[in-house]
Amino acid sequence: MGKLDGRVVLITGAARGQGEQEARLFAAEGARVVLGDVLDEQGAAVAEDIGGDRARYVRLDVSREEDWAAAVAVAKEAFGPVSGLVNNAGILRFNELTATPLEEFRQVIEVNQVGAFLGIKTLAPEIGAAGGGTIVNTSSYTGLTGMAYVGAYAATKAAILGLTRVAALELAARNIRVNAMCPGAVDTPMANPGLLDPAGITDEARDAMAELYKRVVPLGRVGRPEEIARLALFLTGDDSSYITGQPFVVDGGWMAGVSIL
Ligand code: NAD
């Protein structure tokens, strides 16, 4: 028995990183998964690796409403009614707030915030019609506390927590639970672009990153995408059946406070 037997779950940004691990874990737990992304080649390869009877890739730019409708159609055609969504897709831009071009600020909002909104808006009626289910939004450590040079990103991640709470209130009557994950630093191309080009990163740079995490994260290391996937599984499956509207921090203790020793 898998924890997600009989479920059909759409996961955005699933071509790599956390979304990929969520897709792999959910499929291993019995779900049929639909992977949406804008990285077509990578997304299709992950879906193929999971297996055609368990996974499909669909091009889904989360900021485009028409892409959402098409993705739902693909999911229903392939696997039947959809009962879960993981709003995982996201982008990060580093900039001092006062130096951030308006276009860049809007681009981050379009993907991270409008994308999550469209996901909830499009999928909630489907999940309700399937008899209920779950929506898991991906916020961040920066949705709960400040971090310099990621102003646009932090604004969207805080907004996702607002969306999560309101959606939980409005959708509970349709038997849809809505929660959010707040990861700290996770070892994916977003936080570690060196993963995309391992040859291009020096040993010194690698050591400096490891040293940084050792210093600021109580558990002394960066998180692994598989560890975020396990939280997504908890929030999608019945183990969290009485939980809705909440943010879940998964950050190795980073948010717990400051150590002075
Ligand atoms: P990642 O960059 O490896 O993965 C993000 C995925 O989203 C990519 O596959 C990318 O192609 C996809 N994507 C980007 N724009 C898209 C769009 N318009 N439509 C559809 N897909 C799109 O990074 P990740 O760490 O796996 O990020 C997953 C989520 O976790 C993001 O929401 C991110 O903000 C959040 N997060 C990451 C960290 C971290 O340290 N890595 C920390 C906290 C939160």
UniProtKB/TrEMBL annotation:
Keyword check for Cell division: no
Residue intervals of the Ketoreductase domain: 7-175
InterPro entries hit by this protein: KR_dom, NAD(P)-bd_dom_sf, Sc_DH/Rdtase_CS, SDR_fam
Keywords, ordered alphabetically: NAD, Oxidoreductase
Keyword Manganese attached: no
Coiled-coil regions listed: none
Name of the top EC class for this enzyme: oxidoreductase
Any one Pfam family match given in the protein's UniProt record, by short name: adh_short_C2
GO molecular-function terms, A-Z: androstan-3-alpha,17-beta-diol dehydrogenase (NAD+) activity
Enzyme Commission code: 1.1.1.53
Family: Belongs to the short-chain dehydrogenases/reductases (SDR) family.
Protein name: 3-alpha-(Or 20-beta)-hydroxysteroid dehydrogenase
